[in-house]
Design brief:
- By secondary structure, this protein is of the alpha/beta class.
- The strands form 4 sheets. Strands 10, 11, 12, 13, 14 and 15 form a 6-stranded mixed beta sheet that branches.
Length: 312
């Protein structure tokens, strides 16, 4: 049993035990949480929560909670494979960018988890349905864990999730330093689309994780919390240069396949460091981007370990 597997087992037992603890908490205890869209009062321990972005759904499961409502996944619809067992009978309330308010209200939630970047305009309506808390950006998985841990009276589990993450990051850095003679410094994360190539930046979900692991990832170009660049010209290829390329696995779309061929067969592609050093890896977009939560972050880290021949 690996350290990571042992931790998952221990956390599951902790979450189960907390079900008993939560029932003991005074039902009339009220506290006020400050979040990205204001202050929200929450009474007791919410048990009927609706999660309106992927990272919140992921985090609910990590905290041992089954929401009464979730939004559709971006990929592997309607639910990511790694969450299907836990969310098998949960109601879907629409898209992350356009949740169904009437359906949410019908679920009679006692807490809604939202994100400012997605739901700022409908926050007043959500707050009329149930107490609603919000983070700024959907890819801030640590903020999601902290906010939800506080709101759901599961601070102990939230702290365990974050402490375990910190330990894994330190372990990865130590293993990489010990085993790699020439430790890679710069990383580019690429997504080939039908009409462009997307270069993920430091403020993206995967970019922030890679930065925490010690890699240098492309920074934003001045816009606060810009998370990606859209590249349409192959002449801009030198801006991709890095020691390692992580590329989202290609879809079956023939147009996307053609864009990939056009870029990778271009003479400039062969001049890039990662290509010359054969450090080009295909990765799972769900774990590396779409999941947006602490479970997805750990799945991504598992894959980074594997790509460098290390032991998770």
């Amino acid at each position: 049993m690996t350290l990571h597997t042992h931790w998952l087992t221990r956390l599951t037992l902790t979450c189960l035990c907390s079900l008993i603890t939560c029932t003991v908490l005074a039902s009339d205890h009220t506290r006020t949480l400050t979040h990205a869209l204001g202050n929200t009062s929450i009474t007791g321990t919410p048990t009927r929560i609706v999660t309106l972005y992927q990272g919140a759904t992921d985090t609910a499961v990590a905290l041992g909670i089954t929401p009464v409502g979730v939004v559709d996944s971006w990929l592997e619809q309607p639910t990511y494979q790694f969450l299907r067992e836990q969310l098998a009978n949960v109601t879907h309330v629409g898209l992350e960018t356009q949740p169904n308010l009437e359906l949410i209200a019908s679920l009679q939630p006692d807490l809604i988890i939202a994100a400012k970047m997605r739901h700022e305009k409908i926050y007043p309506q959500l707050s009329q349905i149930a107490p609603t808390i919000s983070i700024d950006y959907v890819f801030q998985f640590k903020d999601t864990v902290q906010q939800m841990g506080t709101a759901l009276n599961r601070q102990t589990q939230a702290d365990e999730l974050l402490n375990h993450w910190t330990q894994r990051v330190a372990d990865f850095q130590q293993q990489l330093k010990t085993t790699q003679r020439n430790t890679p410094n710069t990383v580019s994360l690429l997504d080939f689309r039908p009409d462009h190539v997307r270069l993920y930046l430091q403020d993206s979900f995967a970019g922030s994780i890679l930065t925490e692991l010690g890699f240098t990832v492309a920074r934003n170009q001045g816009s606060h919390n810009q998370w990606a660049l859209k590249l349409t010209s192959r002449e801009s290829m030198p801006s991709l240069n890095a020691d390692v390329f992580f590329i989202f696995k290609l879809t079956d779309d023939p147009v996307t396949q053609r864009v990939y061929q056009q870029w990778t067969q271009h003479p400039l592609w062969q001049t890039l460091t990662a290509v010359q050093q054969q450090q080009v890896f295909f990765v799972d977009e769900v774990a590396w981007s779409a999941s947006g939560g602490v479970l997805g972050a750990n799945k991504m880290l598992d894959q980074v370990y594997q790509h460098f021949g290390l032991t998770p």
